[in-house]
Amino acid sequence: MKSKQRIGLAFSGGGIRGIAHLGVIKALDEFGIKPDQVSGSSAGAIAGAMYCKGYKADEIFDAIVSTNYFKFMRPAISWTGIFRMDTVVALFEKYFTEDDFASLSIPLTVAATDIKRGKVVYFSKGPLIKAVMASSCIPGMFDPIEIDGRYYVDGGVLNNMPVEPHEGVCDVIIGVNCNHLPEEHNITNIKNLIERTVIMSMNYNVYSRKNKCDFFIEPKGLAKYGVFDIKKAGEIYDAGYQAALKFIEEHEDFRDLGKLA
């Protein structure tokens, strides 16, 4: 009989497109595929943190769509961002009553970018909420998050799918990207141009790590959704779920991970 393989699960960033990760989680749960540790950047850090805390996919989805994220923010009195994220702390405290990585049921690592040193920093112990906020702090949109005298922005800037924490530790690495672009797209205005350029950069960041993954799940066409397109949350959730189901059905060796759990 085969022994259980240690599984690492890495989630990409992608704004509201990160809701697709919840659909993937739902499918994995249905097939009994349980990660031994999780990593994520930005939206992937938020989804990963709630999953590691023990919330089910449907519960996380309901929490996200029922929350008006921006009502917790106020304009930044700074040239470094439009909004400050410090008022979001109360929102996170609602779901993470113990502000510590050690309180999670599954070990989690989140990636953030030290903006002054220009390097990726991985958080996996100590205070949880600020680390997740730092990982999801979109530069230019939000004021950088200060942790121990250092200033951090979105982990996706330098590592949008942090598989590195699983290397040498896990037998199997599963990567999930929520920013798939169609091969061709009709650029009609400057907004389209900027959005497509940013996503191309994000995906280059992800695809450079694809070969580190034993399995790579990427729901198709999600880049058509805007970063804050909350009205499409249901479609995005279902897209992640359906893509994961299809992937599981097509890969017998992936299904076997559930049998070994």
Automatic annotation (TrEMBL):
A motif (GXSXG) lies at residues 40-44. PROSITE patterns: PNPLA. It comes from Belliella filtrata. Residues 9-167 form the PNPLA domain. A motif (DGA/G) lies at residues 154-156. InterPro entries: Acyl_Trfase/lysoPLipase, NTE, PNPLA_dom. The keyword Cytoplasm does not apply. A motif (GXGXXG) lies at residues 13-18. Pfam families: Patatin (PF01734). The active site is at 42 (nucleophile), 154 (proton acceptor). This is Patatin-like phospholipase family protein. The keyword RNA-binding does not apply. Gene3D superfamilies: Cytosolic phospholipase A2 catalytic domain. Keywords: Hydrolase, Lipid degradation, Lipid metabolism.
